[in-house]
Write a structure and sequence with these properties.
There is one protein chain. The chain is mainly α. It has 2 domains: 2-180 and 298-326, HUPs (Rossmann fold); 204-293, Tyrosyl-Transfer RNA Synthetase (Orthogonal Bundle), CATH 1.10.240. The protein has 14 helices and 5 strands. α3 crosses α13 and α11 (240-253) crosses α12 (257-263). The protein is globular, with a radius of gyration of 21 Å. The chain starts with a strand and ends in a 6-residue tail after the last helix. The relative contact order is 0.14. The mean pLDDT is 92.
Length: 332
């Protein structure tokens, strides 16, 4: 069975950047890879590498799962599950710790960035987070892994670990390949287009949440930072804010940025922004309706239970085979 694996942490509300750069792309991948099965998980174990409120975390897990389904994933092609409910993920993490080197983990830029912000009380799990991620992927022999720019380094480490194990013990792990979204690998902040749109950004004007009502969406787009030139053209170096909006619009229209520039040739920024705000609101409306229905029904629980059952069967077998490969356990 050909597989594709992806996960997302249940921290903060999902925004349009995550949707365009990850979830929407995930749905498109399912259409373009009909012969692949997708293992899609809520990465709650990843979330506790930094302090979390348990009540809020549990609510976020349910909300994130519902939003994934609402965004249109093909359930007949997907095993959707919660990471911590399959203990094989934690077992594989422990086993792979012996195949990752300190120097490799110290070079992870994401760890450096988070450690600089936190300074004190840095958890060991934050340092070894890339090994847990490697286990998530290698458990299911993923052929491909959809990644954004901020995860490229982690996937390279996953490939290194897989190759290291294969070199020492013979071919065992599939070495995964990255899949990059062509148009919106990074959607930038509406207020600071030098920074990625982030779930954790305290500035609410910097992002559009998937749950935002129409009036808020339009307001945020109108206030998005652009420039004083007033000409709609794509220039990522000198017109970062406008170029970011153009990429978002093109992704929603499933067309090229050039086509969007041609459409708005000679049109002022206000009209362009008003149209984009209307487009986003209209696109999110059916997603929001489906989300609220899922949150109030048994359907979501059934979907997660089915996904767990299929994923767990594969994961347990993979861990057992890996332990045997390593010579662990007492032969009875």
């Amino acid at each position: 069975m050909k597989t594709i694996v992806s996960g997302i942490q249940p921290t903060g509300e999902l925004n349009i950047g995550t949707y365009l750069g990850s979830i929407k792309n995930f749905v498109a991948l399912q259409k373009s890879h009909p012969d692949h099965h997708f293992f899609l998980f809520i990465a709650d174990t990843h979330a506790i590498t930094v302090p979390q409120d348990p009540t809020k975390l549990r609510a976020a897990i349910k909300s994130l799962a519902a939003m994934y389904v609402a965004c249109g994933i093909h359930l007949d092609q997907t095993s959707l599950f919660v990471q911590s409910e399959i203990t094989a993920h934690q077992e594989m993490d422990v086993l792979l710790q012996s195949f990752a080197y300190m120097g490799e983990l110290e070079r992870m830029t994401q760890f450096k960035d988070k450690a600089q912000k936190q300074v004190e009380g840095i958890r060991a799990s934050l340092f070894t987070y890339p090994v847990l991620m490697a286990g998530d992927i290698l458990l299911y022999d993923a052929e491909f892994v959809p990644v954004g720019d901020d995860q490229k380094q982690h996937l390279e480490l996953t490939r290194t670990i897989a190759e290291r194990v294969n070199h020492q013990y013979g071919e065992f792990f599939t070495v995964p390949k990255p899949l990059f979204p062509e148009l919106t690998a990074r959607v930038m902040s509406l207020q600071n287009p030098d920074q990625k749109m982030s779930k954790s950004d305290p500035n609410v004007k910097s992002k559009i949440l998937l749950s935002d009502p129409e009036n808020i969406i339009k307001k945020r787009i109108r206030s998005a930072v652009t420039d004083s030139e007033g000409t709609v053209r794509y220039d990522p170096e000198n017109k970062k804010g406008l170029s970011n909006l153009l990429r978002m619009y093109a992704a929603l229209e499933e067309t090229s940025v050039d086509n969007m520039v041609e459409r708005y040739k000679g049109v002022n920024y206000q009209t362009f922004k008003d149209d984009l705000g209307t487009k986003i609101a209209a696109h999110l409306a059916p997603i929001q309706a489906r989300y609220h229905a899922l949150m109030q029904s048994q359907e979501l629980t059934d979907i997660l239970d089915d996904g767990k059952k299929r994923a767990e069967a594969l994961a347990i077998k993979k861990v057992q085979r890996f332990k045997k490969k390593l010579g662990l356990g007492f032969k009875r």
